[in-house]
Design a protein that fits this description.
The protein has five helices and five strands, in the order βββααββααα. By secondary structure, it is of the alpha+beta class. The structure holds zinc ion. Zinc ion binds next to helix 1 and helix 4.
């Protein structure tokens, strides 16, 4: 209550957006239609926690955001799109119906947020957990224009549930959160 300066309000917008939710402020979270309330295996629970991570970030005047250093950032995500298959002569290969044969090609998402990419990326074919406890069940942030904020929100999930992946990045994330969270909570509380 003191940290978020009031109760956290969740508003079900009923809107069909490509993202599941948007956190509007330190204590207001809008949930969109696609979020599938009651999603099993704890995914929904962790997704709500992710949004609360954004709200907490907001409550710290984005100080939480600024603690995320470059070494904690996941690579910009890749996604896949269809491309027509060509033969060695450079001719488009057709199927028996005369339609071009397509294959999935990996693309880098560099300078813009492709809304479809978030969904396509969930195919998880080349998924790395980057120190998180899992893939799309534990990582919810996909916005390259807000890399630190999404990274913090996902790390907030790891911190709340006390669960991380394995390896150096997991250790780095765990110790980072253990170090900064007490200070951030105090900052937001005292504000
Ligand atoms: Zn997010």
């Amino acid at each position: 209550m003191k940290i978020h300066k009031g109760v956290i309000t969740f508003k079900l917008t009923g809107e069909d957006k490509s993202n599941w939710a948007i956190t509007k402020s330190n204590n207001e979270i809008w949930i969109h239609k696609g979020a599938k309330i009651g999603n099993d295996e704890g995914i929904y629970q962790r997704f709500i926690t992710h949004e609360m991570g954004h709200a907490f970030n907001n409550a710290t005047d984005w100080e939480a955001n600024s603690t995320i250093t470059a070494d904690l950032e996941r690579p910009i995500r890749t996604y896949y799109e269809s491309e027509e298959v060509v033969n060695k002569k450079g001719e488009t290969v057709l199927d028996k119906h005369g339609n071009p044969v397509t294959t999935q090609v990996e693309r880098m998402e560099i300078d813009h947020y492709d809304e479809d990419a978030a969904i396509l990326y969930r195919s998880e074919s080349k998924y790395h957990y980057y120190g998180y406890a899992g893939g799309s069940n534990w990582q919810f942030g996909y916005d390259p224009n807000n890399r630190q904020g999404e990274e913090f929100a996902d790390m907030y999930v790891g911190w709340v549930f006390g669960k991380w992946g394995a390896g150096d990045m997991a250790d780095a994330r765990r110790s980072h959160m253990d170090e900064v969270m007490p200070e951030l909570v105090k900052y937001a509380y005292d504000k």
